Structure formats: C-alpha cells, structure tokens
C-alpha cells in the first residue's frame, strides 16, 4: 500500500514538473506575440456601435480576429482549425463567448471592476476588460489571477491600458491563499469569472470567496463532458443560489463529439 501511495505521489510530482516546463516554454513563445494585444485592441475599438452587439458579427470577430487556444484540440471543432494558435489564444467556443460578451456589454453597465480566477495566457481577461470598458466609462479596476507567472499578453495589456485609466493587478498564486482572500476582500470585484481549479471543491471555494461581493459570478465549463466537477457544481449552484438569476451560454458544435465548455452567469437580483 505504502509503495502504491509513493508511486502515485511520484507520478503527480512528475506531471506537475512537466506542466511547469511546458508553461515555461510557452511563456517564452508568447514573448514574441505580445503585439497581438495591440492588434486586437485596435480592431476591437474600431467595431462600430451597431455591430458590437450583433451576434453573428461578433462570433466571426472572435474566430477571425481574437484567435483561439491550441493546447487541447480534442474538444475543438475541426472547421475552426485555421484559427487555433492565433491572436490571443482564448480558450472558448466562439459561439458561446460572443453571446456572453454581448450579454456583458448590455447587462454589466454598472460594474466597475472585474476578477478572473485562472486567467492563463490572458486572452479572455483582455477581451472581457475591453468589453466592460466599452460598456461603462467607470470600469476602472481588474484583477487577473493564476498560479503561472504573468504572461506577455497581460504585461502588454497592463502597459497599454494604464494610460486609459484602467488599473490591472496580477496575482500570481493560488486562489486558496490568504493573500488572495485579502485582495478580494479589499477590492470587492463587481464581476468574478471562476475558471481556475476545476475540481468541485476548488471551484466552490472560489465561488464562496466572491459571492459576498460580486453582483455577477461567472463559471466556466458548466456543460462539459470533460469537466464533470464544474458541470455538477453549476447544477447545484443554480439551486443553492436561488436569490440569483442564472443565464447560460452553452451552444455546441455539431462536428464535435460530445458537449464542452459552457459559460454560466449567476446574477444578483435585488428584487427577489
Ligand atoms: C482553463 S485555464 C483558464 C483559461 C482562461 N480563463 C481562458 O479563458 O483563456 C485554467 C487556469 O487556472 C489556473 N489555476 C488552476 N488552479 C488555480 C488556483 N487554485 N488558483 C489560481 N489559478 C489556478 C491554471 O494554472 C490555468 O492556467
């Protein structure tokens, strides 16, 4: 028994080490791609007002201009192959993300701050900040948190956006740390996007951390065959958080075998 436990520990440690090496190498590769942030900002800000809330226009914009992650293609539609490993590398389904971003621009006009737990390379974080800025001139503060070091995308975005009056804080570390709890308690983000630890207890801990402060709490991977824990947690939260309305963005691609990703929003409703 002791030998099996030791072996399990050794395998876990080796996996964590390999993951760290992969992330380090990717970090280096991303250093040459920081200008993708400048290009995205220019193109996003140039979208006319009548098109920014148009679902099919924005879905095309996500695919062609924002660019998609290429770390795990098993859940990705093959028809989007030319767009993986491009732009801001966002880990999203364009069908879901475009509708979610439009929803935010329409409904989060009174939200002045944003927190993303598990921001990875930073693509989703940057797009969300730009959308929130566009919807609300008082959007002034955002926290990006991840175990991995601050990435070139987030570094570049922080440089650019400072002169536009948006303050960005990067928290490197676990969302379960006391330092992170202190930061969240101090800054009380209006919107929280939970996309870090995908175990049931991990995502629930993150939810509990923000629920007192965040008017809008967003969960990722709420309808995913690959993420049983977060899918299950979302089902529970919809029942347990019964003073909040819920909205889901879970459109799927026919070319993919199974259901994946999914964005769920829990919205404080003071009338209930
Ligand atoms: C699926 S990725 C996030 C993708 C990103 N939100 C996007 O849309 O592109 C999950 C991230 O969560 C981070 N993570 C996992 N557990 C965490 C924790 N306890 N605290 C902070 N970050 C965590 C991982 O390092 C990883 O980068």
Question: What does this entry look like structurally?
Answer:
- With 272 residues, the chain is of the alpha/beta class.
- It folds into 2 domains: 1-32; 93-268, Vaccinia Virus protein VP39 (Rossmann fold, 3-Layer(aba) Sandwich), CATH 3.40.50.
- 47% of the residues lie in helices and 14% in strands.
- It has helices spanning 2-31, 35-45, 49-52, 55-66, 94-107, 123-135, 152-162, 178-187, 200-210, 228-240, and strands at residues 113-117, 141-146, 167-172, 191-194, 216-220, 244-249, 263-268.
- The chain has a 7-stranded mixed β-sheet with strand order 3-2-1-4-5-7-6, with helices on both faces.
- Helix 6 links the parallel strand 1 (113-117) and strand 2 (141-146).
- Helix 5 (94-107) runs parallel beside helix 6 (123-135).
- It is globular and about 65 Å long.
- The chain starts with a helix and ends with a strand.
- The mean pLDDT is 93.
- S-adenosylmethionine (SAM) is lined by residues 90-92, 117-120, 123-124, 145-148, 174-176, 195-197, 202.
